[in-house]
């Protein structure tokens, strides 16, 4: 720093590329005045210097060619086959509905990204309905994020402003991304998304294959038509989203919305039992972690993953077993509820892993360990015990005596959306991991690479950029996406979000950055 302060001309300073990335991340997280305030204490590049790096590549919608090129360059040094595989995560984020004009190119930014065929169909529908066929303003952004299965690479490779996204639009955009990655030598293993109905419809649009020979009624894999060799493409629903869906089914059983009356083998599975367990242990030294936020769910708390994981946990099932004779729980059915919570907890551990490279969390829970053997007992457990539990549950409801309507019987189990998601996720996960171990010869595979945590953290960076926790408009999102790409691993995820931030080793990347060179006026 002393050497930097001795420089008479700031333009003569040559900044380390990683320091440039840190400065870009700091500028992205704060306002211009905030960055200048930090410069009073820390010697940082000027905003004009950062401009030359952040504008070397213009932001755009659609396939992010610069991000794909970065992945190709970084993966070119990999020799092992398994290091070439990536999972493709996709989801939508709400944005402000603004229309702006790019001052440099004159491009109007903010409309939904539609292909010519989609525009023609929209015009035909508008003509039939006698409505205005104006180009729709985007209200969400569809983002595709490629994450290495056994390598540390990560990048947003597709950004599409959208409005009322259809399964057909999702199909065409997804396969555009897959074909682009495969043509560059980046092999796509698995598509991961949340359990929205449009995503399930997207899965069902593909011709199903059955690499596990399980004869599933749901599509969990298809042929990767973009691959040079004969290779499957697997589908998965994000395990944390699946866990929240299952917890919400239980929460609405005889409580909250009261939309379900879950029943299994002669016992009711009721959220009221969880409420009474919380009431039976009011002191702060209870063996479970339940609080009022876990019990009285709101639209906001329903989205918190940590509340779902702590509710559907071994500590809660163990406490229910120990307190089943407590006066508060005298009239409550607990046997099947204990089994239900235990099976959901263990299934989540198998599908989500821990991502703990130091192995601190894995000492007492082998379900969190990385997968190293195609004959791992957890694969068999997921198929026979985890899915078998819910399949037997369905059968017991069908065989229940009494005059119940089809709708009433459907409400006795978890929702059909959750039932479908757990089958797609379990089979897709088993197929993808065994493929990596058997065909790609990976030494180990961590289940943490098969969820949407990195994409959720990416969205967190988008919302927190510019010093405010608000949704950006379409142009701001594109610009911020460019900044996150350049900052690379210097753009650390926020630790207060809705995901678990892995304690990864932070290795400074000092690869020279692309720079915009200004031409001097004559």
Automatic annotation (TrEMBL):
<dbReference type="Pfam" id="PF21788">
    <property type="entry name" value="TNP-like_GBD"/>
</dbReference>
<dbReference type="Pfam" id="PF21787">
    <property type="entry name" value="TNP-like_RNaseH_N"/>
</dbReference>
<feature type="domain" description="Transposable element P transposase-like RNase H C-terminal">
    <location>
        <begin position="449"/>
        <end position="478"/>
    </location>
</feature>
<dbReference type="InterPro" id="IPR048367">
    <property type="entry name" value="TNP-like_RNaseH_C"/>
</dbReference>
<protein>
    <submittedName>
        <fullName>Transposable element P transposase</fullName>
    </submittedName>
</protein>
<dbReference type="InterPro" id="IPR048366">
    <property type="entry name" value="TNP-like_GBD"/>
</dbReference>
<feature type="domain" description="Transposable element P transposase-like RNase H">
    <location>
        <begin position="61"/>
        <end position="203"/>
    </location>
</feature>
<dbReference type="Pfam" id="PF21789">
    <property type="entry name" value="TNP-like_RNaseH_C"/>
</dbReference>
<dbReference type="InterPro" id="IPR048365">
    <property type="entry name" value="TNP-like_RNaseH_N"/>
</dbReference>
<feature type="domain" description="Transposable element P transposase-like GTP-binding insertion">
    <location>
        <begin position="241"/>
        <end position="355"/>
    </location>
</feature>
């Amino acid at each position: 720093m002393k050497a930097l302060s001795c420089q008479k001309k700031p333009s003569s300073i040559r900044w380390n590329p990683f320091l440039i990335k840190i400065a870009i991340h700091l500028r992205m997280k704060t306002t211009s005045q905030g960055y200048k305030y930090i410069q009073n204490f820390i010697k940082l590049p000027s905003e004009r210097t950062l401009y030359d790096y952040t504008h070397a590549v213009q932001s755009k919608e659609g396939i992010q060619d610069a991000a794909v090129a970065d992945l190709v360059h970084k993966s070119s040094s990999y020799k092992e086959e398994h290091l070439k595989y990536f999972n493709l995560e996709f989801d939508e984020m709400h944005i402000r509905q603004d229309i702006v004009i790019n001052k440099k190119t004159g491009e109007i930014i903010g409309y939904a990204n539609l292909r010519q065929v989609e525009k023609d169909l929209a015009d035909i529908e508008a003509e039939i309905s006698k409505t205005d066929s104006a180009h729709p303003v985007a209200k969400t952004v569809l983002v595709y994020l490629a994450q290495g299965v056994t390598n540390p690479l990560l990048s947003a490779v597709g950004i599409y402003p959208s409005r009322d996204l259809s399964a057909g639009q999702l199909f065409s955009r997804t396969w555009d991304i897959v074909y682009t990655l495969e043509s560059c030598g980046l092999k796509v293993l698995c598509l991961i998304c949340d359990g929205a109905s449009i995503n399930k419809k997207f899965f069902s649009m593909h011709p199903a294959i059955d690499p596990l020979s399980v004869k599933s009624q749901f599509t969990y894999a298809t042929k990767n038509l973009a691959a040079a060799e004969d290779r499957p493409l697997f589908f998965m629903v994000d395990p944390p989203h699946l866990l929240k869906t299952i917890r919400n089914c239980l929460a609405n059983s005889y409580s909250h919305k009261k939309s379900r009356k879950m029943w299994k083998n002669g016992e009711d599975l009721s959220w009221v039992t969880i409420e009474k367990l919380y009431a039976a242990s009011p002191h702060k030294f209870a063996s479970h972690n339940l609080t009022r936020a876990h019990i009285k769910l709101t639209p906001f708390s329903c989205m918190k993953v940590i509340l779902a994981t702590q509710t559907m946990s071994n500590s809660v099932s163990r406490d229910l077993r120990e307190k089943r004779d407590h006066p508060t729980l005298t009239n409550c059915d607990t046997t099947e509820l204990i089994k239900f919570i235990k099976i959901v907890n263990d299934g989540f551990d198998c599908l989500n892993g821990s991502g703990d490279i130091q192995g601190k969390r894995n000492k007492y829970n082998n379900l969190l360990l990385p997968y190293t053997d195609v004959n791992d007992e957890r694969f068999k457990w997921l198929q026979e015990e985890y899915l078998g539990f819910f399949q037997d549950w369905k059968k017991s409801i069908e065989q229940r005596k009494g005059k119940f309507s089809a709708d009433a019987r459907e409400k006795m189990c978890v929702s059909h959306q959750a039932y479908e998601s757990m089958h797609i996720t379990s089979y897709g996960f088993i197929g993808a991991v065994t493929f990596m171990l058997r065909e790609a010869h990976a030494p180990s595979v961590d289940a943490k690479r098969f969820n949407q945590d990195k994409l959720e953290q990416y969205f967190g960076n988008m919302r927190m950029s510019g010093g405010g926790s608000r949704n950006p408009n379409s142009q701001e999102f594109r610009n911020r996406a460019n900044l996150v790409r350049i900052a690379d691993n210097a753009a650390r995820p926020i630790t207060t979000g809705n995901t678990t931030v892995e304690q990864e080793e932070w290795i400074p990347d000092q690869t020279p950055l692309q720079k915009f060179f200004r031409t001097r006026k004559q």
